[in-house]
């Protein structure tokens, strides 16, 4: 059975997919000219709507600067939107916090993430995790690899899909498609162009898991 079996069934039945994008500044769209239009969740939604027969309803639960503790506090509001599919972007602010290198902080991150996943499972929502971005500030954070590894371990243990954002963004740089500074001019956040790249990449990764062929509309509209 697909890890996204519930969301796939919703789409196959021609019902609108209730998509929650949950996370911090990447999800909110910090750095975008108009987050309601050019953030990665907004662009991703347009791409999925182009191929999902019942449409897609987006609920953007991104809040800049939040770590796992802040996300835990917002979880009831996220659950209230009754998501079919959650794309949960997390780990970046925990990895750059002053106490990030403390083993207790890493364990807290893991515990809160596991608790959130349990809460989504109880309401029957599918979850795909998104790991940490590749950027100058995150690469300079000594604890970042530990949080990246923790996310991958959680996904593996629970057989959850994980969008490997860090590896994909690093690949763009290594392949010469972009520079690390062009992708994230402030060292952390993306521009409209970067968010569009991210959204297209997520759509290409996600659509086959949902039984869809990603469309190619004008993502700027």
UniProtKB/TrEMBL annotation:
SUPFAM superfamilies: SGNH hydrolase. This is Lysophospholipase L1-like esterase. GO terms for molecular function: phosphatidylcholine lysophospholipase activity. The lineage of its organism: Bacteria, Pseudomonadati, Pseudomonadota, Alphaproteobacteria, Acetobacterales. Pfam families: NonGDSL. It comes from the Bacteria. Transmembrane segments: none annotated. InterPro entries: Ester_Hydrolysis_Enzymes, NonGDSL, SGNH_hydro_sf.
């Amino acid at each position: 059975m697909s890890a996204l079996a519930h969301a796939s069934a919703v789409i196959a039945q021609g019902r609108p997919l209730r998509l929650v994008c949950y996370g911090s500044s990447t999800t909110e769209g910090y750095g975008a000219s108009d987050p309601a239009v050019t953030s990665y969740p907004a662009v991703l939604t347009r791409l999925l709507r182009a191929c999902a027969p019942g449409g897609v309803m987006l609920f953007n639960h991104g809040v800049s600067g939040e770590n796992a503790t802040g996300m835990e506090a917002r979880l009831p509001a996220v659950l209230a939107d009754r998501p079919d599919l959650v794309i949960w972007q997390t780990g970046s602010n925990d990895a750059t916090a002053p106490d990030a290198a403390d083993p207790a902080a890493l364990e807290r991150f893991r515990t809160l993430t596991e608790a959130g996943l349990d809460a989504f499972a109880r309401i029957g929502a599918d979850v795909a995790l998104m790991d940490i971005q590749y950027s100058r500030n995150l690469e300079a954070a000594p604890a970042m690899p530990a949080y990246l590894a923790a996310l991958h371990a959680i996904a593996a243990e629970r057989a959850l899909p994980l969008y490997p954002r860090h590896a994909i963004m690093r690949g763009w740089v290594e392949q010469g498609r972009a520079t690390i500074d062009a992708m994230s001019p402030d060292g952390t956040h993306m521009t409209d162009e970067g968010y569009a790249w991210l959204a297209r990449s997520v759509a290409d990764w996600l659509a086959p898991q949902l039984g869809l062929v990603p469309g190619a509309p004008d993502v700027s509209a």
